Amino acid sequence: MSATARSRRTRTLTRIGALTAVAALAVGCTSNTPAEESNGGGDDGGTTAVSANDDPGETVTIGFSGPEADHGWLAAINSAAREEADKYEDIEFDIAEGTNDPSAQIAHIESFISKGVDAIVLLPTDGAALTEAATEAMQAGIPVVNVDREFSNEFAARVTILGDNYGMGVSAGTYACQLVEENDLGDAVIAEIAGIDSLPLTQDRSQGFEDALSECGQDVDRRVAAEFTVESGEAAASNLLQAANEIDIIWNHDDDQGVGVKAAFENADRDEFFFIGGAGSANAMRWIEAGEMEATVLYPPTQAADGVRLARLLAQDKGLSDLVQVEVPRRIVLNAPVVTADNVEQYMPLGFES
């Protein structure tokens, strides 16, 4: 990193209060005092909140079907789900082999229904393709927790847990605006390295970035797209650098492809810009600690782990004691905080290996 970039970085590593909230919703969090007995004036026989939801309860079987671990974030999804289940002695975890084949996942769900599991947690390869099978599970009385990729019918899931792709773009753009203001960059040259352009998640991230930049009178001057892989990241970043002699800020959507992006920066001997990443890999967090990267925007790899916690509560007929409405929510969207040198230690445990 050049002396100029290091000087910029020192002056600008301030916390964005609204964007550095805890990334993963603490769905298992409960009060330390016993819940009061119902006085009969409210819920008539429905689910009631309990204290100490993490205390052992009735043993339940949770079926889990996730993706093939061909990407660092996806591997983290699977491992986090398994690790969360292992924390509870009252969970019997039936985990299917990861796959990118919708037909295989349909077979997983059919198997779970046949076994009579108590709940299913599913990150679908294709939400639309898995909707019918998930609906069949719901109709069989098995609550389904849908993770990350939505079904095409809301009746296919009891709970949907999502990362915030649009929010990622907003977080990255808001942080870029802060950099522009604090460093008096004026009409800054801002570049974007997107993921696969045909995917709605990429479109949402780009739209959020554009919308946030417009709030401070900035826009995206250069944009290229990669494919969420190291090789494509390096190729896209190389093309970007060849097309632009001077760049002030670069946002890369995905920290896995960011390995290739960073290699392209090093090959071109370019470091005049602030480098912002996306997703929250362990590599990115180590680069932030080393002063080689400005920030990354988290896309929580805890979604399936949160799904396991919620599935356990649903199967045990428990609610969330930290909510006035004690039922488990139908929809949860996790935050997309900005991770900087100021707070990287807080988020390092969530970093996944690329």
TrEMBL record:
Annotated region (Disordered), positions in chain: 31-56
Record's keyword terms, sorted: Signal
GO molecular-function term, one example from the UniProt record: carbohydrate binding
Residues of the signal peptide: 1-35
GO CC annotation: cell envelope
InterPro entries linked to this entry: Peripla_BP_I, SBP_2_dom
Record localization: Cell envelope
The Periplasmic binding protein domain, residue ranges: 62-318
Superkingdom of origin organism: Bacteria
Similarity field: Belongs to the bacterial solute-binding protein 2 family.
Protein's UniProt name: Substrate-binding domain-containing protein
Naturally occurring in which organism (per UniProt): Streptomyces lonarensis
